[in-house]
Amino acid sequence: MNQFVIEDLIVGSAARKLVDSVNLSVEEGEIIAITGKSGSGKTLTFMGATGLLTSKELTVTGKIKWNSEYYTPSEMNTFLGKEISYVMQNPMTAFNPVITIGSHCRETLMEHLKVSKKEADKIVIDWFYKLNLNDTKRVYKSYCYELSGGMLQRVMLALAMAVGSKMIIADEPTTALDTITQKKILSEFIRINKEYGVTIIFISHDFGIISQIANHIAVISDGKLIEYGSTEKILTAPEKELTIKMLKELCV
Ligand SMILES: Nc1ncnc2c1ncn2[C@@H]1O[C@H](COP(=O)(O)OP(=O)(O)OP(=O)(O)O)[C@@H](O)[C@H]1O
């Protein structure tokens, strides 16, 4: 079943269309990778489609289908941090440096799930364990700047799962990590998808990474979705010049 459908999404500034009539269907339970060169419009597409773009200079139009109902892009904002989570490249920016990780998670859960402080703590700690944050008490009491990038990504994933997200949009989640941590975080995304059926939209310009994780690949260039297909099809028989070039760069 198509869980998340973007129809004719346009994100424009006065000067030009930065996202130009993008249409894309994401199936429930799949991992889809969104790729393209830097500045091609990957982030704007998904920030636009989830109501995250608040800049007055940008207009966002189009229709979004979420679990069989249609919404405007800005209405999609109501699902964020609940059914849909957006995991950013630099998790440090997602946390307030003056409150502990535990307080941040507890407050988020109390607000979104309307649970008590005790229940919130229990749910978060449970997900910390499931996400292999074994030193749970220390993580809970830490401030974001006291944890590594990989640990913060695990906290972000734990929080996304704790609030009951059915879909996670991960925007370059491993770019700031070293190669070993990158592999470990990638395997957590795959595990979350396999064990809990969470749909994952994985935005990355790294073809090497996305070929390991995705069922489908969509290629964006100059704000347009130029190629879409199964990972096998895109890797073995790409049709567009940009896709072929990106694959060649990977093999150099
Ligand atoms: N708030 C904004 N106002 C105006 N233009 C913007 C804004 N945010 C991004 N842009 C421009 O829109 C284009 C697409 O940006 P976007 O961040 O979506 O690219 P991207 O493909 O995600 O790039 P990267 O891989 O480097 O993250 C770029 O030219 C960028 O400069």
UniProtKB/TrEMBL annotation:
Q: Which Gene3D superfamilies match?
A: P-loop containing nucleotide triphosphate hydrolases
Q: Where in the cell is it found?
A: Cell membrane
Keyword Transport in the entry? The reply is: yes
One GO MF term on file is: ATP binding
Q: Which InterPro entries match?
A: AAA+_ATPase, ABC_Ni/Peptide_Import, ABC_transporter-like_ATP-bd, ABC_transporter-like_CS, P-loop_NTPase
- Cellular component aspect of the GO annotation: plasma membrane
Q: What residue stretches are annotated with the ABC transporter domain?
A: 4-247
Answer yes or no on keyword Transport. yes
Q: Keyword set for this entry?
A: ATP-binding, Cell membrane, Membrane, Nucleotide-binding, Transport
Q: How does it sit in the membrane?
A: Peripheral membrane protein
- Cite a single Pfam family from the UniProt record: ABC_tran
Primary localisation category? membrane
- Family as reported in the entry's similarity comment: Belongs to the ABC transporter superfamily.
Name of the molecule in the record:
ABC transporter ATP-binding protein
Q: Which organism is it from?
A: Vallitalea longa
